[in-house]
Amino acid sequence: MLGSITDLLRQVPELALFLALAIGYAIGQIKFGPIQLGGVCGTLIAALFIGQLGVTLDASVKNVFFMLFIFALGYAGGAQFFANLNLKGLRLGILCLIEVVVVLALVLVATKVMNLDAGTAAGLMAGAATESAVVGTATDAISKLALPAAEIQQLQANVVTAYSITYIFGLITIVIVTSQIFPLLLRVNLREEADKLWAQMGGKEAAPDEVNAVREMTGRVYRIDVGAGRSIASLHDLFAGQANVERVIRHGSKLEVTPALKLQRGDQVLVIGRRRALLTASSLLGPEFADTSQLNMVVQTIEAMLKSKALARLQLGQLALPAGVHVSGVTRGEQTLPPLQHMQLQLGDVLHLYGSADAKSSAMAEAIAMIGTRIERTDRSNIVYAGLGIVLGVFIGTFSVKLGGIPFSLGTGGGALLTGLVFGWYQSKRPGLMGIHPDALSLLKDIGLASFIACVGLASGPQALTLIKQYGVALPLIGVAIAVLPASISLLVGHFILKLEAPILLGAIAGQQCSTPALSAIQNAAGNSTPLLGYTITYAISNVVLPLMGPLIVGLVGYVHR
Fold first, then answer.
1. Cα atoms in the Cβ-side hemisphere of radius 13 Å centred on 399
2. Any transmembrane segments, and where (predicted)?
3. Residue 228: CB partners within 8 Å, gap ≥ 6?
4. What single-letter DSSP state applies at residue 493?
């Protein structure tokens, strides 16, 4: 049976790629407490085992998938990367700088002490820093070294093997220390600190499950009693902009809702707004009732990108939108943030506007004009970006400069990452143009990286055992040290110098290592989404900077050995 499968895979080696993806993503979905390896690491493990059968794919297949992934990575992060090149972003960017400098230093020390080759050193860095993209940029840089083909293949195999060993230990380490150990070192109760910060920023103090189970934006109908004589304008002030009277029925007729309109006893009104604001509405208006047949109306949610520099200096609660328009959510980069009133807005934030869909209402149009530009979502994607971006990126990657006698170049990966960043930023500035759909972009990243890793894993399978026997437990232990030390230094700097709140600091540390599993563990421990406020900034920066370290570490290892 095994012989028949082996023969089939050798005859049609493409099947090995899809088999590694299927088995790998199944492995990656298995949870060990808060730890989940994910599809990429699972695919690598599956590919290394399948590779023992001697099944390999043409190198061009690997290169195509890598180009798709690295361009999509840059395109997805372009807007947030450039948006964070400000004082606040650069302030948290110090943690990313710590990550890069400390990881590079530790890898170079390990290289000197253990006489690591360039492939093993690059794989050690990629795994311990839990940044899979470094595998691609490093193997691409190794392919351009002036070495025999067999030696290049061995070095590339070492990248993957070292990555697979150290990634697992680096991932487990960063998840445990950020969510369990660091709060103890800070001497804080993370859940209490997160609840306190959530309340300070205008969030509801109840459990997060309640927020998820009940819609934040809602509408209710009331029969006017105690509210008789109040004007619409006075009610708007009492609701503090958190709710609005949208419809008024008097003696069976619908009235035009104007600021000067005064309510009378027996009027039926529809109030739309945030749920917590409506909890006290009956004390201002009168009893709530269930029959909404005359008062029901259609509402809409529209996305608008924040392009106003004046508004970007404000907190969300200071945003004076037209009456009847509310912000129901904020998307920053690839993360959806809770609409907390004291959350600082940033250029490029996508605000989800909630309001009436009445054709004659101009409030939504006024709000969009004030914020920036409406985003028109479409299921289609503009492949021109991907095709042209990859071509330009590969061209840019061919140029090199010598620093201290060492030739450095962006390579295929760095070039495609750079053009992806620029194209993603350009698209964010012109949301009216058709870009690459977020779902399509996510697929490009997932299938591109996983397929690239599978191809390299299949080619590296036969050499994997050699490297494991050579270094034994040394690589896992070094991987743990490389994961812990920069995170620990960032903890000290963030707490004593930057004075960051514990939830934001821990989220930022998870972001500096691009570790989504660590973020999930921190959020579970915190009980709300406040760690996201630190994670989005450092993730956007590290997700761009760390992949560029692949060619750098390859060049520096050669310098160390010389």
1. 6
2. 12-30, 37-57, 63-83, 90-110, 165-186, 383-400, 406-426, 474-498, 532-560
3. 263, 264, 265, 267
4. I
pLDDT tens figures, 189-223: 999 999 998 888 766 544 434 444 456 788 889 99
Q: Which residues pair with 304 in a beta bridge?
A: 351, 374
Question: Closest by alpha carbon to 236, among 276, 273, 207, 195?
Answer: 273
Select from 448, 412, 455, 456 the least CA-distant residue to 160.
456
**Secondary structure element (H or E) that encloses residue 407, with its range:** strand 406-409
Q: Which amino acid is at 151?
A: E
What tens digit of pLDDT does each residue of 337-394 get? 877 888 888 888 889 898 877 644 678 888 988 998 888 777 788 888 889 989 998 8
Comparing CA positions, the residue from 137, 140, 131 lying closest to residue 163 is 131
In whole angstroms, how far apart are CA 230 and each of 120, 246, 481, 536? 74, 15, 66, 44
Stated pTM of the model? 0.75
Distances (CA, A) of 217 to 287, 288, 530: 20, 17, 20
Q: In the block, which residue shows the tokens 């195509």?
A: 64
Beta bridge partners of 401: 408
Q: What is the CA 412 to chain-centroid distance, rounded?
A: 24
**What are the tokens at 94?**
């110090």
Q: Which residues contact 12 (CB under 8 A, 6 or more apart)?
A: none
